[in-house]
Fold this sequence. Notes:
The complex is a heterodimer. By secondary structure, chain A is mainly alpha-helical. Among the domains of chain A are: 1-79, NADH-ubiquinone/plastoquinone oxidoreductase chain 6, subunit NuoJ (Four Helix Bundle (Hemerythrin (Met), subunit A)), CATH 1.20.120; 129-169. Helix content of chain A is 62%, strand content 0%. Chain A contains 6 helices and no strands. Chain A has helices spanning 3-24, 28-48, 52-77, 94-118, 133-143, 145-166. In chain A, helix 1 (3-24) packs antiparallel against helix 2 (28-48) and helix 2 (28-48) packs antiparallel against helix 3 (52-77). Chain A is globular, with a radius of gyration of 25 Å. Chain B is mostly helical. Chain B has a domain at 323-515. Chain B has helices at residues 2-7, 9-27, 51-75, 93-119, 126-143, 147-165, 172-203, 208-216, 224-243, 252-259, 262-287, 301-319, 325-346, 351-379, 389-392, 395-398, 400-414, 420-434, 438-464, 480-498, 500-514. In chain B, helix 17 (400-414) crosses helix 20 (480-498).
Amino acid sequence: xxxxxxxxxxxxxxxxxxxxxxxxxxxxxxxxxxxxxxxxxxxxxxxxxxxxxxxxxxxxxxxxxxxxxxxxxxxxxxxxxxxxxxxxxxxxxxxxxxxxxxxxxxxxxxxxxxxxxxxxxxxxxxxxxxxxxxxxxxxxxxxxxxxxxxxxxxxxxxxxxxxxxxxxxxxxxxxxxxxxxxxxxxxxxxxxxxxxxxxxxxxxx
Amino acid sequence: xxxxxxxxxxxxxxxxxxxxxxxxxxxxxxxxxxxxxxxxxxxxxxxxxxxxxxxxxxxxxxxxxxxxxxxxxxxxxxxxxxxxxxxxxxxxxxxxxxxxxxxxxxxxxxxxxxxxxxxxxxxxxxxxxxxxxxxxxxxxxxxxxxxxxxxxxxxxxxxxxxxxxxxxxxxxxxxxxxxxxxxxxxxxxxxxxxxxxxxxxxxxxxxxxxxxxxxxxxxxxxxxxxxxxxxxxxxxxxxxxxxxxxxxxxxxxxxxxxxxxxxxxxxxxxxxxxxxxxxxxxxxxxxxxxxxxxxxxxxxxxxxxxxxxxxxxxxxxxxxxxxxxxxxxxxxxxxxxxxxxxxxxxxxxxxxxxxxxxxxxxxxxxxxxxxxxxxxxxxxxxxxxxxxxxxxxxxxxxxxxxxxxxxxxxxxxxxxxxxxxxxxxxxxxxxxxxxxxxxxxxxxxxxxxxxxxxxxxxxxxxxxxxxxxxxxxxxxxxxxxxxxxxxxxxxxxxxxxxxxxxxxxxxxxxxxxxx
Lengths: 205, 515
């Protein structure tokens, strides 16, 4: 076994173990850590492919920003947010059925691809500057400029959609908080200095 | 260079129009000058109370997108230097035909939204921006000639729709619908991505023409590449079957359609499905257009035929048993996906005739289904959406105009003359029979008879039933925007139904550009 294939096996196992942890674990923190494992594994896979720049970006953006954001949200909501008591009415057949279908599918996939894995497509040997910042930049802003520009629409939709979904509940008269004086903007414990006109603090939303 | 911008003008018009819409929303006159609503509450909502003007602006933007598609069509895109953006975006008459349909559908949906959102107290400006940018994604999906642009465009379109479903935050059902569609849709996108990766690994190409050329040169013997191409193709097809909501990948559709605000539902049923069919046909005919992959023994036709038969039969059987009209229309849109897949199947032997028939069907189906949902919107009013058959009882006597519009669109969906739906069905069946797929055509015919049952049920309730005494009666809303959307849709349905030749000729020209 060459060091390269050892690195591949380690990173692949890390990816898969992380992915399984993310899906299976009941604690959100553990799931986030599983995701972190997957991301690290993918960064290692990029290294193996000599895409050092992508590997660094993967670590900075995903491990550095996305997972941290997840952990922040978990901290804000509390670690037990979203976990609900085991429901009694859970189907007895569905999990084994889904698992069986997945196994059948995976077997068929690997059976079909067995021959292909032995004779992989011969790609052209990458140039020496493959994976450098310059090469990635040329690829992104010159060769694939059109899809890159198209992602602007994707990002706008994501931002506008986040606002549309994330903004407060509207059209719900009974529970709607109508803010009549600026003091009510404060959620949380009302300080002595805020407490000018209204004696009792509002209950938090 | 300027030629290229002209060629891309459908995409650019709608995209920059969307930016303009956002500016108009942010900088336009607020609902009132003080920033306080009449009851003294602070208004922190830029688009609130202005859904009519924003909806009108969005409609104008989308209709001008349709007009520019027509302009580029007439100017002949091949002379406009479009090879500069190829293979990422293929500007040909095929994609222009779809961008025209998509812009018209989007424009009708924003018209419906302008009336609906205000009536149902969710007048939020974001809705229109989301429709416009989702349409940008849908148009780009029609243009896409490379797996990379296919994925980016598909995500742009879907992301907007997920958020449009969840717009009504107060309704748990809308939340459920949005989450269900989001999870299953992302899963489908991941499956499709896996297929794309396998295709790239096997062929070394991401552009559809390159994949097609490689697959064509593979030769007959079973090799590793052939296996990878077939698995990759199947995974891609699964991803697209999710988007067109073909059985057995339809589980999300009824819940998502029912939980979403009705203008969103009509956008999903029309634009999303049309764009998915545009890319499905292009991928099947360009990337997998090899004679062996198009054969009945070793290619995609049997897969498409199975999906088609399942979609038609199962959706029709379930649709007949619904008590909610909105849910019935959701199942009806699944069954229409089945009829369309029948046409896709026929493309194995007659690529041009069958694609032209599918494109014609899509045009008629989009307008009819938006009209049917729009008529459903019109029949309900504040606080009470008309969703069940019982709500429609006696509408024909109390509000003949609304009922007449509903009846026209339902007749078109059922495929009866003289409407657009009739000729759509006629051409798809003719293509299927010409392609010698007789059993498929017979199953389709039987299904359209079953389908007529539940469409007629709407007419029976509207014209021959009276509401149960004491039951709350749905009062139709008053909105000039919804009414104008219905008038435009009805005019188009009748126009296509009376003079189908012109549109069919356009579809044939467009289909010829594909191959």
